[in-house]
Specification:
Strand order of the largest sheet: 3-2-1-4-5-6-9
Number of strands: 9
Structural class: alpha/beta
CATH architecture: 3-Layer(aba) Sandwich
Strand content: 15-25%
Number of helices: 7
Number of domains: 1
Radius of gyration: 18 Å
CATH topology: Rossmann fold
Order of helices and strands: EHEHEHEHEHEHEEHE
Shape: globular
Length: 254
């Protein structure tokens, strides 16, 4: 009778893990047996996410600072020896305004977090995934339905999420020789703080100038979709997933 070889726990890095989708994904991965590095700017919120779990590593990190990002991945590798999954989730909504109404500083801040921060994290993850044994891994980028259809007065955020789609496809293409896959999840109207920012629960601005209360769905349901992507075998990749609240104005928006 052959002996069963025990499965090695997988290692994941989750950015923006202190709240919202990042918190829900981090907790679900921990519950599913992953070892998880929790990254975010506020240590207290990361500790709340971790809830004292023995396989959670809390690493305060600003994804726009290259040294912070390098320290995050070095700490993860030092603790567990590898990185199997990166959930690139840290992001901000940025300024509300049309292209002629926002400042260059607001634009730069939004792209620094949503695009450059994701690039820096992906770069560190790819370096480790190329060098580890067995080689390879998976990167999941959190886009948005704004990568498909913008809300009014959201030019900086919308452009950043279109850029995320380009980042996803480039990583997937360039990672092929090394067993590194990349996919993107575009989520619409989870019940998180950012929905309060744009007034989804009280009346979000629509393309025709009206305001409409839009449906939302639990963040835990979005986390399950991320888990599905993370759990795909190395022989398969989910390149793109769109998950929205049922009935929200996305298809036929405006």
């Amino acid at each position: 009778m052959s002996e069963t070889i025990p499965t090695r726990p997988r290692v994941a890095v989750v950015t923006g893990a202190g709240s919202g989708i990042g918190r829900a994904v981090a907790r679900l991965l921990l519950a599913e047996g992953y070892r998880v590095a929790l990254a975010g700017r506020r240590e207290a919120q990361l500790l709340e996410t971790a809830e004292g779990h023995t396989e959670a590593l809390v690493v305060p990190c600003d994804v726009t600072v290259p040294d912070d990002v390098a320290r995050l991945f070095a700490a993860t590798r030092q603790r567990w020896g590898r990185v199997d999954v990166l959930f690139n989730n840290a992001g901000i909504f940025g300024p509300s305004g049309a292209v002629d109404e926002i400042s260059v500083d607001e634009w730069n801040t939004t792209l620094a977090v949503n695009v450059t921060g994701s690039m820096l994290c992906a770069a560190e993850a790819v370096r480790i995934m190329k060098s580890q044994e067995p080689q390879g891994g998976r990167i999941i980028n959190n886009g948005s339905i704004a990568a498909h259809s913008p809300r009014p007065l959201s030019v900086a955020y919308t452009v950043s999420k279109h850029a995320m789609s380009g980042l996803t496809k480039s990583i997937e293409l360039d990672g092929r020789p090394y067993g590194i896959s990349c996919g993107q999840i575009d989520i619409g109207n989870t019940r998180t703080e950012i929905m309060d920012t744009i007034g989804v629960g009280s009346g979000a601005l629509q393309a025709d100038g009206s305001r409409r209360v839009e449906p939302m769905f639990p963040v835990e349901d979005a986390a399950r979709a991320v888990l599905m992507m993370a759990n795909m075998p190395a022989s398969a990749n989910v390149g793109s997933v769109v998950v929205t609240a049922a009935g929200m104005p996305f298809v036929g928006r405006g």
